[in-house]
Task: inverse folding
């Protein structure tokens, strides 16, 4: 059992998704955008984001294996499900739920860049820069958060909690499951 403390309420997340979508709509006006979600965590954010885009949108997904201790140092990430679309000459937006060490995105960015898209940008809802192991700055960034392990809105702990509409800090060692109202930590908006 886990204790959950609210970090970002549903309304706050939705307002941020609106804001990010507004910027993307402006930046890609008159263009067609291939939005690529990184499974599984990005599925909720991506579903909300694309419904607020009014540019021409095509969606695709990529699934990667999470690196273990062995690969963490090398940054090698295995692609479990590659894109169905060809991206050469197209405008691609990679969508993540969270950037932590940055290893997943760094690898994917390099891999996709080699396929020569017309442009390649990164959009993340959450960014934990304190944990970064590689140099990576997202083009669109929802919230910069402290080094908490968070769940909800697509993010999991042991595959659970992805369905929660808000984002919570999880206490992985506690005995009781609650959903407190306290906002933990100072939020810095990206
Ligand atoms: O910046 P990093 O340290 O690479 O961490 C970020 C990645 O970790 C999580 O995925 P995870 O591997 O847990 O898989 P999931 O998306 O299926 O939850 C998250 O969704 C990112 O893809
Ligand atoms: O805080 C997190 N929560 C869930 N998955 C994650 N993957 C990297 N960081 C996190």
Result:
């Amino acid at each position: 059992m886990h204790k959950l403390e609210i970090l970002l309420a549903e309304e706050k997340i939705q307002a941020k998704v609106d804001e990010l979508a507004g910027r993307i709509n402006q930046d890609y006006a008159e263009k067609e955008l291939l939005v690529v979600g990184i499974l599984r965590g990005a599925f909720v954010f991506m579903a909300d984001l694309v419904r607020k885009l009014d540019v021409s949108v095509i969606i695709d997904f990529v699934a990667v294996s999470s690196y273990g201790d062995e690969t963490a140092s090398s940054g090698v990430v295995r692609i479990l499900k590659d894109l169905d679309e060809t991206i050469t000459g197209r405008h691609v937006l990679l969508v993540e739920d969270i950037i932590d060490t940055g290893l997943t995105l760094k690898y994917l960015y390099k891999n996709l860049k080699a396929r020569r898209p017309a442009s390649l940008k990164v959009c993340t809802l959450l960014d934990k820069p304190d944990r970064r192991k590689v140099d990576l700055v997202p083009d669109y960034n929802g919230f910069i958060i402290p080094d908490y392990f968070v769940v909800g809105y697509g993010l999991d702990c042991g595959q659970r909690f992805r369905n929660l509409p808000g984002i919570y800090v999880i206490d992985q060692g506690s005995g009781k499951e609650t959903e407190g109202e306290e906002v933990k930590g100072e939020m810095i908006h990206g």
